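anyone else get weird line breaks when pasting these?? whatever heres mine. first is seq + C-alpha cells for prot A
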Amino acid sequence: MKNQSLLAGERIDQLFSSDVKIIQNRQVFSYSIDSVLLSRFPKLPSRGLIVDLCSGNGAVGLFASTMTKAQIVQVELQERLAEMNQCSIALNELEDQVSVINDDLANLTQHLPRSHVDLILCNPPYFKVDEDSNLNESEHYLLARHEIATNLDSICQVAQQVLKSNGRLSMVHRPDRFLDILDTMRRYKLAPKRVQFIYPKASKEANMLLVEAIKDGSTDGLKILSPLIVHQENGDYTPEIHEIYYGKNGN
C-alpha cells in the first residue's frame, strides 16, 4: 500500500472486509452502501474485462478487484472524480489491473472494442430531472445523482454495444424506477435475470434494488432473490451486511 498525498477535504476510508482503501471527499463525492452492495452482487468473471460505468471515485471497481483477476476499466465523466479514482488505484497498487477513462460513457466505443466486455457494473444517477428536482447541490453531486449527463437509455445502449453476447450488466438503482429499468433493458436486448430488493429495515419499504441482465439472453427466467435487510430494528447492521463490511470474523 503506497503513501498518498491528500488534497484539502480528502480522507481515506477502508472497507474492512477487504484491504482496499478509497480516497473520499465529502464535498465532492463519497461512496455509500449502494456501491458496496453492487460490487458484491454479480458473480465476477475470473478473467476477461469488467467495466464500471459512472464510477465516481472508483469504489465499486476497486472493491470488485479483490475478487477477480479480470482487468477493470473505470469510466467517469467528472475530471475531479477521475483524479481521485486514479489516486485510489495508485494507493492500492492496482495499476496493473485497474485503469480509468475520463470521458462521457457515450464515447466508450472510442476507447474499447465493441462486443468485448464480460461484465458492466453501474451505479448510475437515480433521479430524472423535472420541475420538482432539487438542483441546489454541488455540480459533482448533481451529475452523480440526477440524469443530467447520462440516463438509463444511454447506459443500456452503451452496454449493448460493448458487452459480449451473454455478457452481463449489473446495476443498483431505486425501486420506483423498476419498470422503467426493465423496459429500457429489454429495448436494448438486455434480458433481466436477477433482481434483489434492499430494505433499510424489515419494517420499512425497499429503498434500493440490484438488477442483472444478460445481453441477447432469453426474456424468460427472471429471478427475484430473497430480500436483503440492512439494519436490525435497533439500528445495528444485520449479520449479512455486517459480514459484507467487516468480513466473517469482523467485530
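and prot B, same format (seq, then C-alpha cells)
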Amino acid sequence: MTQFKDLVQQRRSHRKFTNEEIDEESVRLILRAALMSPTSKGQRAWQFVVVEDKSDLEKLSDAKDMGAQLIKGAAMAVVVLGNALQNDCWVEDGSIAAISMQYQAEELGLGSCWVQMRGRGLSDGTSADTVIRGILDIPDDLSVLCVVAFGHKADERKPQNEDRLKWENVHLNKFVSL
C-alpha cells in the first residue's frame, strides 16, 4: 500500500487517457471511497451518477464552454450531486467525496481530473447543471457539483515539487501579514 504522504505528492490531474476500460473491481473501489468519505452530521446525502457510455461522456464534455473536453476521452466519469435543501454542506461533502475518489484512483494507478460544473455553463447562458440534468435525467431537487473523469493515464506527470510548497500561506495561531 502506498503511504498517504506519497500518494498526495503523486496525485496530479490527468486530462489524457488511453482507450483501456477500467475493471469492475477498480470502479467499485473508487465508488467505495466516495461512499466512505466524511460528511456533515454523517448525512451521506450526496448522490453519484457513474457514466461509462461513450455517447454520454461526449455530451458531458460539451456541458460548459471550456475545460470539459477531456471527459470524452475518459473511460468513466462520476457526476457528483447534492441537494441544498437537504444538506447545507452539500458542496463540501461532495468535494470531499470527489477527492476521496481521486486519491483511490491514484492508488490504483489510474488518472483522474475534477471538472468544475457548479456555477459554470455555456456562452448562451445555459448552465452546465441544466445540460447535465438533461443528459442524465437528474431530478430537479439535485444540483451538479462536478464531474470527475477517470481513466488509464496516457501521459506521465511528475510528482508535486516539495520545493514549491507555499509554506508562507500557513499561519500559526494568528494570521500574520507578510
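btw re prot B: The two ends are 40 Å apart (CA to CA). The chain has a mean pLDDT of 96.
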